[in-house]
Every structure is written in structure tokens, then in C-alpha cells.
Amino acid sequence: MMTWLLACAWAVPISWLLLPAVVPGALIRGDSSLWRRLASAGVWSALCGSIAVAVGLAISGSQAVVWGSGEGLLAVRFGFQVDGLGVAMALLISFIGVVIARYSHSYLRGEPRQGKFFRWMSVTLGATLLMVTCSNLIALTAAWMLTSLGLHQLLTLYSERSWAVWAARKKFLISRLGDVLLIAALILTFRSFGTTEYSELFSMAQAIHHGGAPGVDHTGWIAILLVLGAMTKSAQFPFHSWLPDTMETPTPVSALMHAGVINAGGFLVIRLSPLITLSPVSLNLLALVGASTALLGSVVMLTQTSIKRSLAYSTIAQMGFMMLQCGLGAFTAAFLHIVAHSAYKAHAFLTSGSVLDRAARTAVPPAATAASGYRFAGLLLALVVAGGVVFGLLPTVGVNLLAKPGGSVFALIMALAVTQVMWLGFRTGRGTLALRSVGAALLVIVSYVLAYQVADLVLADSIANQSLPPSIISASVTAVVVLGFASLFILQSLPGGLDRRPWVQALYVHALNGFYVDIPARRLTAMFYRQSAPVP
């Protein structure tokens, strides 16, 4: 009885949210307040239902609720995967949905198209919830495609804005490529494993990992197709150029896209990690692409003059870092990244309109800067302190990051990030600010470690725990990743005066234009739709 109650706690609100997808469009032009109330009721019921399922999970443990009949790829079977990953993602998505719905009430007040907005916001949230809670690949693929279609309707809310429509078309083409890749992976998975149910797939993959079952054909191709599909959804290089171009959409759409839908690729990799880890090649590909995307987004973000475009490239960088974590096998860290990034981006976009107002009311005194010699000494001291904490202090208290998958790389990246935090205080030459920066850095490390431990417990039965055997290829990938992030650290720590060097100014111009990697995507979009790109 408890099992079916848990299933209904998800099935009812998800069905409610998806219902507007089949309602005739003519009704939208009627009472917009009706659609607003229906969407609000849907997101609130989804949040309450997810809380109920979380309580049930704590009482009954992980389980798959499946009903239906038939055999084969076209069998009518449906269910929910009640485990730590699904429940945590459902709580996150429904909470963000509630926040965006409440914000949109006032943001779109008086807007004649708010009925259409709330309709497709409801469908997009419902499809995303279905994607993270379903128990088989067929439902995941259907929800994956429905999420993209709902988002496309939101991106074209203002159809008279030529650039918004153009960006939506570019996104539409990339999403359809992702659909094809995921469908191909689905077909290959069924042909190789004979099932699409998570529980059966994961148990077979676990047996293969432990050598208790014969190898399955096409596992490498399945993993690569899944990785490529995830790259299209999460704006990985070279499929990222659509994201910065979608800034003409209403702010609630940007918040929903950057805090929710964009995480679908990372979720796909984490959810199907038992399958993807069967192929070391796919993980190495994911690590390389993720690191490249993170570095590209980080550099371009620093040069953007538009708040929303800067946030867009920030999202690209964060998604790249999340995919890097997945590629190195650190799926718990990737999940934690999704949660933190979603909360931050929802807040950042929903408050982006007040940034300039706050800046105008805030008096910022000129920052005191120590002499260049003290600046270098401060940077070196910050690096030593950060390295001592991450590599020395944490292991002594029982937190050994090096023992985790990809731990050595992430420990180094954490040390570099914490160094940047402390250097902000050390570079001033003021003891008080230096101590405050050390305190802030320690707080960041402690908070992350505690959150990681909690996430590790939540995902204990949801992700792959296999460590990849060392190889020359994986070692080379790790070396390239470390070199890339070390170079980014050096670039961000350039001493004053170097910004006037010709090569730095040239780098700034190229970064301002996104290193021109969006030009091929624009040309392909123009060729497909047989019209030239409008002026942004």
C-alpha cells in the first residue's frame, strides 16, 4: 500500500503539470489567471508530493514502482524510481518551480501572453520531473524530448523578436540532434541488454563490472551516444553557442532554463553512470570536453558587459565543470554541483534586474593594493595555506579527498579556488582583511566537505562506485585538465599592468566574441532554415 501511495504522490502532480500540453491552444487566449492558478497548484502539489516521497524513502528505502504489461521495446510499462537521486532532484526541481511561479505572478502582471507562459512552464516542469523520477529509458527519452519542446515554446514567447526566434531555432536543431543520439542509445541498449528498466540494467552492469557476467555487445557505443546526448542538453562545447543567444526571453524563462533544464545532461550521466562507466573511453571524452567547456566559459564570462550574457557563460563554465566531475567518476560531486548551481542561478537571474539599482546605492571605496612584491608574496602564502588545508589538514580529520574518484584533480582545483578567495585579502596588505579571507576560505572548505558527506549518503544506492583502472590515456587526460586549470589560475592572477600588453588585449577581444565558435552554428542554422541570421 505504501508503495502505491508513493507512486501517486508523484504521478498526480506530474500528470497535472503535463495536462496543459494536450489542452487546445485556443483556451489560452481566454482567462490567463486560470492558467496561472493551475500552474501554481501543480508546482505546489509537486513539492508536497516530493516531500511525501522523501519521507517514504526514509521509512521504506529505495524501490522501483513499475506497472504495465508486455515484452519488448514497445511494451506498455511505466513506473517511478524511488531512490536518493530521484527524490533529491524532484525536491530541487519542484522547489525552483514554486519560486519561479511566485516570481512570475508579479513579473508578468498585465502581460497578454502570460497564459501561454504558465502553460508551457507547467509542461516543462512536469516533463523535467518525469525525467528525473521515471524508472526506465523509454519514459526518460520521452520526457527528455518533451522538456525541449516545452522550453522551445517558452523561448519563442515573443515571436516578433527576430533574434529570440533565431536563438530558439538554433537550440531546437541542437536538441533534435540530442534526441537522435538518445534514441539510438535506447535502441542499442535494448538490443544489448534486452530491457530498458533501470533496476535490471543496473544489476546487469554491476555484474559486468565485477566480472560475474559475460560482456555485453555495444556497451562502448551506448556510453558514447549517451555522453554526446548529454553534451547537447547541457551546453557543452561545441554545442554551447545557443545558450548566450537566448537572453531576450523573459527572466523567469532564463531562471528555469539555467537552474533546471540545463542540468538534464548532467542528470542523465549520473543516473546512467552504471552503464557509462562500462566504457573508459566515454569517461575520458566527457572529462576532456567538460574541462574545455569550463575553461572556455570561465574566460569568456570575464569579458561580457551584459549581466545576463555573463550569467550565461557562467552557466556554460559550471556545466563544463560538472561534466568534468562526471568524466573523472566523481558523480557525488557532480550531483552536489547541480544542487548548488541551480540554487545560485535561480537567485542570480531572478535578482538580475536589481543589480544596477543596488550598485547605484552602494559606495565602493577604491581597493587598497599592496606593492607588487607583497602581492606575489601574498599569492604564494595563500597558495601554501590552501594546499596545507586541502592536502594536509583534511586527511588528518578523516576527510581524504585523494581516495575519492578524481580526488587528486578536485583537491588541486579546490586549493586553487580557495587561494583566489584568500588572495583577495592578502593582496591588500591588511592583516584584518587577510584573516577574514582565511576564515572565509575555511568556511567554504568545511561547508563543501559536510555537503559532500551528506550527498554521498543520499546517493549511496543510486550511482556507480567503480573506480577506473589507471591507464596512459586517463593519466594524459588528467594532466591536460590540471594544466588547463593551472593556466586559468595564472591568467586570473596576472599582476597589474599586464592588461596593457598587446597579447592580453588581443585575448580580451577574442574572448569578448566567444572565440568565434558560434559562427559555424549560425551558418548551419541559416542553411537549414534558408535565411540569414538577424542582427542581435
Helical fraction equals 55-70%
Q: Please identify the structural class as seen in this structure.
A: mainly alpha
Low-confidence stretches: 363-371
Strand content: under 5%
* Separate helix tally: 21
**Biggest sheet layout:** 2 strands, antiparallel
Task: Calculate the terminal CA-CA distance, rounded to whole Å.
Answer: 56 Å
Cα shape? globular
Compute the number of strand runs: 2
Radius of gyration, Cα only, in angstroms? Answer: 24 Å
Tell me about this structure:
There is one protein chain. With 536 residues, the protein is mainly α. The chain folds into three domains: 1-132; 136-352 and 467-536, no CATH class; 366-462, no CATH class. The chain is 70% helix and 3% strand. It contains 21 helices and two strands. It has helices at residues 2-18, 32-60, 84-107, 114-133, 137-155, 162-193, 198-209, 219-233, 251-259, 264-271, 273-276, 280-301, 307-327, 331-350, 355-361, 372-396, 407-426, 431-458, 472-492, 502-512, 519-529, and strands spanning 63-69, 76-82. Strands 1-2 form a two-stranded antiparallel ribbon. Helix 3 (84-107) packs parallel to helix 14, helix 5 packs antiparallel against helix 6 and helix 17 (407-426) runs antiparallel to helix 18. The chain starts with a helix and ends in a 7-residue tail after the last helix. The model is unreliable at 363-371 (pLDDT under 50).
Explain the layout of strands and helices.
Elements: H1 2-18, H2 32-60, E1 63-69, E2 76-82, H3 84-107, H4 114-133, H5 137-155, H6 162-193, H7 198-209, H8 219-233, H9 251-259, H10 264-271, H11 273-276, H12 280-301, H13 307-327, H14 331-350, H15 355-361, H16 372-396, H17 407-426, H18 431-458, H19 472-492, H20 502-512, H21 519-529
Antiparallel strand pairs: 1-2
